[in-house]
Specification:
The complex is a heterodimer.
Chain A (H helix, E strand, L loop, with lengths): L20 H8 L4 E5 L4 E2 L14 E5 L3 E10 L13 E8 L4 E6 L12 E8 L5 E7 L2
Antiparallel strand pairs in A: 1-2, 1-3, 4-5, 4-7, 5-6, 7-8
Chain B lengths: L12 E8 L10 H16 L8 E4 L8 H9 L5 E4 L6 H14 L6 E8 H5 L3 H6 L20 H17 L3 H16 L12 H5 L3 E4 L1 E2 L8 E10 H4 L7 E10 L15 H12 L8 E3 L5 H10 L8 H6 L16 H4 L6 H12 L13 E8 L4 E9 L1
Classes of the chains: A mainly beta, B alpha/beta.
Amino acid sequence: MTQTTGGSANLPLPTPTVDSQPFWDACRAGELRLQRCANGHWRFPPAPLCPECWTREASWERTSGRGTVIAHVTFRRVYHSAFAPLIPYTVAIVELEEGPRLTTRLVGVGPDEVKGGMRVEVTFEPASDEVTLPLFRPAK
Amino acid sequence: MSSPDGARLRNRYAIVGVGQSRIGKVPDATALGLLAEAMTAAVEDAGLRREDVDAIVCRGPDDVYAHHQRIGEILGLDAEFSTTVDNGGASQILSIILAVLAIDAGLCSVALCGYGRDSWSRTHRSEEARRSVSLVPEEQQQGEFEHEFGLFGAAATHALGARRHMERYGTTKEQLGSVAIAFREHAVRNPSAYLREPLTMPDYLAGRPIVDPFGLFDCSVPVDGAGAVVVTSAERARDLQRPPVLIRGFGTFNNLRGWTAGERMIETAAKRSGAKAYAMAGLAPAEVDTAQLYDCFTSMVVAQLEDYGFCAKGDGGPFAASGALRLGGALPANTSGGQLSEGHVEGMLQIVEGVRQVRGDLPKERQVARAEIALVSGHGGNTVCHSSLILERG
């Protein structure tokens, strides 16, 4: 069961900031990259300095793209018409192997099959010419 | 943690009047109009005159800039001290805390705190308005990492924690239902509550699915409505017409590092906020006679029962299912019907109800026996902010 929203004209698209633009650029290139400070701390969401040590220097490093479902919900009610065809769809908090937690949508798995602790991996889905979304599917 | 000196303010300040507006569908009033109804009622309840009020601390309707200025203009009040508070559902108790601190600092002497909203009217203007549910203006909403993944609404952010709680502790849908059913029983006895039809477990389980694990009856009910309180010194309170309700303790904690970090989805900021309030009050959870908990969703009540120490972590579901929260139970809670049934006014009506219970002036069928101590909670800012208030009969 693969769900896509790529064809939906009114999908709400992210508004990148100067801090997050590299994240979205990497997604478009098919890579999940997060900031890692000079002292080795990973962070997400994108931010101008490391919340652990306040170091400003950071690089955008490629992650494993693998993680674990921490929490999940399944939408049964339409909040936005772009998602109406997807209902029921599952939104999850995924903890990457590197530590940071991401909000994402799960694909390739039915709502009743999702469990906390499930292993997942990133998969990229174009949402527009500019934006590619990092979604997650059960790990192979 | 707070300094032990927090106890210096224990029982030095009091709530001397409460008021509320019409609750439910009130299409002929704006949010500010409803707040004005509640604030004037609170001043009248205190037996004070407009000229006695010299401070306003309130939270706005989310889209009104400098809200304290607007309500002051409507009420014809200048202020020695006034501001608008920005901590979501935790703002209402925080307003009272700020009022106490301002009075203690000598900046003012009698403060009006309150909140009003027009959620029923606002969400019934169009199909699009019904869907969007958000009261936060678009330009103030987070621009990424949320909507593009289909994550919308406060129900979902709380449901994520509810699911994790169920998977971790075995909390059941029926246990969540026992919260909604107990509070509906209370609403049936409260003539001003919005939802007063009795609710059974089959009704609850048949509720329209919203965002699993939540159905319709796990979610608070949007209403038009407002509440307000008057805060002044305990000394001044002794000369006023109502029995004073002393502010015995308060606390705050905000999980600013993020609501998904660590175990925060299931162990909320209530734990540290509550610990400070208990320390200031010099009280233990067992000494609380009634709790008025921020019930935006059923699962938040379960989590707070644990975080406030009424039961062990993970036992909130069985505790609620035991009947403890019902009038006559071990911890009568949300005795006005709560936000799940009376109507969601961002915790303001829980403060009003806590004061009324402690004053002991409710009709017999609504009154908690021997309500000397009430605990009230506030929670908001997308599950980040928390505030706690402990009230004592004066």
